[in-house]
Fold these 2 entries.
Entry 1:
Amino acid sequence: MYMQDISTQLQKGKARDVKQLVQEALDAGISPVQILNEGLIHGMSVIGGKFKNNEVFVPEVLIAARAMNAGLEILRPALVLAGTKSRGKAIICTVQGDLHDIGKNLVKMMIEGQGVDVVDLGVDIDSDTVVEAIRVHQPNVVCLSALLTTTMMNQKAIIDAIRKAGLRDRVRILVGGAPVTAQFATEIGADGYTADAASAAEAVLSFLKV
Ligand code: B1M
């Protein structure tokens, strides 16, 4: 019931209703992972399919995305372990030319949920910004998200820039996003690839060896 309603209201872009329903579902004792997968991600998948078939267009997808991010914010405390001692630090961004941030936000939340500090650089982030952020924040792990076939090569550009700056051996690099594959990750010199946010958090922990 809640799951269907969350999915439907998300598809309609009703951020306030999505927030309220997510809170009600949590209060009713439904697990945050179930709300995430069967409510929020389900709704966004339906929108994604309609977008592909030209049944809805960018404005509808954008307001659905806002509703998704609003719902994620309500889920955040339930997904993130409160008061855990920091196990390390990661920086995360969506690469240059790419404005998709829902997957990145989810990956960030899951990593934080494992007690790792995450510095979020945002979307449309170029190589220089990542290199500078490594110098400033001294992370153990760099997480790069790309949702477009046209921007996934910018993951390579960032990895190349990190190497050129002499920082490659200081960080482990994880890449992901819908068009990215394990083979691509190997080809561009990343240390890891995962298909989803929960596995991304596991990969980060394995990099930190905790
Ligand atoms: Co865009 N878009 N979009 N879009 N959009 C896609 C990606 C697309 C597949 C839709 C389609 O045509 N079927 C298509 C890409 C096609 C391609 O490249 N082959 C596309 C396109 C074409 C575009 C535009 C070019 C459209 C246009 O303007 N004509 C444009 C580009 C803008 C830009 O970035 N420069 C555009 C714009 C937009 C909106 C702004 C409207 C909006 C984004 C809003 C936002 O993010 N705030 C949007 C959306 C929402 C989508 C779809 C519908 C949904 C993406 C999403 O959030 N999914 C998407 C279609 C689809 O994916 N079905 C689509 C939910 C999210 C939880 O999943 O991000 O895949 P995802 O993240 C997953 C995994 O990939 C993984 O974990 C997450 C979940 O567990 N993951 C990682 C992600 N990052 C990771 C990093 C990791 C590890 C795992 O390690 C570091």
Note: The first helix runs from residue 2 to 11.
Entry 2:
Amino acid sequence: MISRTQSEQLFAEALKYIPGGVNSPVRAFRAVGGQPFFVNRAAGCKLWDVDGNELIDYVLTWGPAILGHAHPKIIAAVKAAAEQGTSFGVPNPLEVTMAKLICDLVPSVKKIRMTSSGTEACMSVIRLARGFTKRDKIIKFDGCYHGHVDSLLVRAGSGALTFGHPDSAGIPAAFTQHTIVVPYNDVEAVKAAFSANPGQIAGIIVEPVPGNAGLYLPRPGFLEFLREITEADGALLIFDEVMTGFRLARGGAQERFHITPDLSTFGKVIGGGLPVGAFGGRAEIMDYLAPLGPVYQAGTLSGNPVAMAAGIANLQELLDGGAYCKLEELGEQLEAGMRDAAKSAGVAVQFNACGSMFCGYFTGEPVWNLADAMKSDREKFKKYFHGMLNAGVYLAPSQFEAGFISTAHTPADIEKTVQAAAKVLRTL
Ligand code: KE4
């Protein structure tokens, strides 16, 4: 029997001082029941909770740990940077190294601005799009999550969706009146939005592969269509690559799907586990930002040297050797194994995967958008989640989150995961 006594005591204490006992809602296990465990050590693809239970980790701190946890090169880079001082509030050389690295890796990005979170990057890129186009309206897709930005937290994904009320309290209607929400993969709905708002749409912000309602993929031609319709209307195409960036390919989803957006946002991987976000794109748009242009955007810790060191080490290690081939191979092994496990257990599972991202929905129907994802059997997911946790496999504690694989996972870890799933699925 697995003991989580220490975690239970810590959670009781946390509840006294932190709303819900957590610093981010998705960690609270509200979508799966029970209570979160606490971790104070992670290495490679493993977590150890404070009671010493070992887990194979497929959350990877929601994406950043693409090389696995506590990678020696990241730890060394952070130590070396920290010893020089943790923040200067003055430009530092590592900001230039990071900016050049991202611009080299992502051809659509000619200039980039660092922030301290993905939310900050998405909030800023919307302001920039509106300032550059002098238009107010923004199109987003239901189920897509772009951080807790007031104007974008409308029929969002991730934790917002998990709580069953996608719109958040505390957001005045005036703040979302310019936000148009349409179903992902729905060409006609996007055309209708542009027809109803000719010349008024500043841009479309989209997760090219949505990972905040589980995981679903663009239908063939959908992303190309978004590129064409924005170009034709003078609106901007904004790829939110906070999750997909530098994961689905060296140059992110835009490289994988051969699309050139006008602007992109990044986070997670570029921080190597430290707080980092970024947004970038066409130079003539980026130059609208202060101090050059009229769009204000700022941040005390933007470009923080320790965070830059961690992100640069993460990216450089990803580029050395066959990281992306390994991620693809491990992703294919998991996808094949999970499909076989579901089939042999006689459980209807829609297993969606793209490279090293995945999600298993408990439904027999294909999942191409939020409405499809909402048909999944969440009660089955809850049982599956806890069954896997008790088998030593940590999946995202919500049906509406993507799973991630790192280069630290091995074929043996994947096989152990598949074997565990084969057993747990039979109990559902
Ligand atoms: P952050 O502010 O959490 O760094 O980034 C917001 C964000 C923006 N865009 C995309 C596509 C994202 O996936 C995210 C954050 N992802 C969630 C996981 N679904 C973060 C986990 C959490 O909220 O605790």
Note: The longest helix spans residues 323-345.
